[in-house]
Amino acid sequence: MLSPAFIPMSIGTLVNKQNSDGGWPYVRGGSWTEPTVYAVMALLAAGETEAAGRGLRWLRKARRSDGGWPPRLGIDQSGWVTGLVALLPPAILGEEIHRSAVQWLLGTQGKETTRIYRLREWLLGVPSPVEQDFPGWPWVPGTAAWVGPTSIAILALQRENRQRPTAPIQSRIREGQRFLLARMCKSGGWNHGSSNALGYAAHPYPETTGMALAALRGVKGPKVEMAIAVAHQFLGECRSADALNWLRLGLRAQNQMPPDFCAPSDVARRTIPETSLDVLVAEAVRQGRDVFLNLV
Amino acid sequence: MSRREWLALSAGAATVALSGCNNERPITPSLVSIVKAPAYDQSIYDTMRRMLAAHSLDVRGRNVVLKPNLVEFEPESSINTNPLVVHAAYEAFREMGAASVRIAEGPGHRRNTLDLADAAGYFKIVPRFEEQFTDLNLDDVTRVYPNRQFSRVEKLYLPNTALSADLLVSIAKMKTHHWVGATLSMKNLFGTVPSGVYGWPKNVLHWAGIDESIADLNEAFPRQFAIVDGIVGMEGNGPIQGVPKYAGVLVAGNDPVAVDATCCRIMCIDPFQIGYLRLASDNDSHMSERNINQIGEAIADVATPFALIPEFQRLRTVKS
User: Fold this and answer.
1) Cβ–Cβ contacts within 10 Å for residue A58, how many?
2) Which residues on B lie below 8 Å from A121 (Cβ)?
């Protein structure tokens, strides 16, 4: 994991791996939205603007007519990555473009909490579990909500709420956070969002625990405390770069990052998102900033 | 009687009436082999060679993609296809003259595929594993337009590595499944659906119909071979929270329906109760034992009941 001395090396990696179309792959191959957003964020945080500018042009071009973003060019559907794009500063992405991302998020929710679906279930006499009471965000419209896309959407709306607070944004943030709390695993922490299937309790994952904690910044209570304890445990035993990144981001958002924690240096960063998020964590430590709320 | 029950009964009666109109046509039996494999040890390599040889596969100069089941990793569990089985298949196909053999998977729950593979032992067992591996979740994709579609998936994008394979080898784990009854070589194809497009999990397949989506994926890959790791499978609340179940077999064949139906019989599960098998087989043809040329061990000698959750007790057959 990065110490400040190694940030330039990672920035160099990101610059070298940029595709000729301005986007980034996950590892190799064509450009995808997620790695492009994270790479742009990392480069901006580190003050590397030229490559970031090419990435921003790719992102602007990728926007679809409904105001959302597809996982990659050629996929004929907007999805959860719209929340990632909305993490970018409006002044840098473009105000109107950023606004369309926020509007897309506000107009999207998991299918299981839509009125039509709930009416159908009620007519069929199907009981609605309490964890389906609050609208989160799906990976793909027309499907159920999950912890990953909900966490990202909340982070994006929290960012927007700082600059342009509105009642609908605040309402969706609150509802999304209730969704996360309702989907917590019995032992604390979060997996992808299915904490209980057919009566069997499922186990949490470190990366989604970190994401949810990041989205629950400012929320207090016994559930969050339990999740923080689980996150601390994961932090001590985790060997995944993606998981370590999100655990650190989540615990920092909760002001619960152990001050003496030193991430293992031999954990491989295998993808562009892993490298980018590692840079973001390092920059957050170096600059003392919250990179989701205040990237540049 | 509820309206729903009445509708189901009427549909069933109509099906029975119509089926009487079909004339049986001769069917070429599908070859399925069952071989004993007592343990995950070096003997698997020779067992795999002999098993594949019996199927006379000609892969000379071809691109072969091995698709194991890699879901999550928990120590002492039997969730994933054992890496020794995968490596044995890898070596066997190379020895058979394949131009290239790649291992590819797209796990649906955890995003960090290589970390999963590392924790599951693939880096230790398969030399230069990362060079031989493709994460299907993050692969370049192509939109597929099925000739025949069972599910409600509106737009199906599949990874190019799997689509372009001359032979896609589904190397599944023999497990029960809490939504569809059993997960075998056909359900294993869920791992070809790219989470980079559809998310973690691939919930779009559940909304579109799980059984129907499995049948669609079976159609999307016409050049398939199936191997099922039944050395230690999973029973109970599969495919993740069940318990290990020893069966001591490998099962293989180029007809996934026939292979999976045979696996069901080994597990003492009625294959005709498995929705995706019924959808994928024409008039249940390749599920019937009379249309399967089964070689190797007799089912009766290796069958062992896999414990089922209460919701699936109706799948049970009596050990024959």
Assistant:
1) 20
2) none
